[in-house]
Amino acid sequence: MVGMTRADKVLVVLVLLIAIVGIGLNMSIVAAGGEQKAEIWVEGTLYKMVPLKEGYKQEFRIGGDSHYDIVEVQDTRIRVREADCPNQDCIKMGWIQHAPQQIVCLPYRIVIKVVSSAPTDTDTIVR
């Protein structure tokens, strides 16, 4: 078997550079994708949609004096800041900001989903 010539080495480096640039461009295009919104569902019904964009802030309460979640929106992310449910899993989930992430509060049947207008053909693990 013959060793690699200088031209072979240049070709390998060139192919690797093209592959790395292609992957980088693909990831930047996916990251700069479409408009992001958060859908808030309560007991299977769409309760509210909020934009996830720079400079946007909002805080609102879902529920009454008891059985409530306080949702906080800050720029491109959303979270449940306070809740009176027993296990507090919805608070522990923290901030979410990428589709298809979601927060679920099972006791009060609240689901917060991040949705995007960008195509979602790339697996989340790849991103």
Automatic annotation (TrEMBL):
<protein>
    <submittedName>
        <fullName>Uncharacterized protein</fullName>
    </submittedName>
</protein>
<dbReference type="InterPro" id="IPR038690">
    <property type="entry name" value="NusG_2_sf"/>
</dbReference>
<dbReference type="Pfam" id="PF07009">
    <property type="entry name" value="NusG_II"/>
</dbReference>
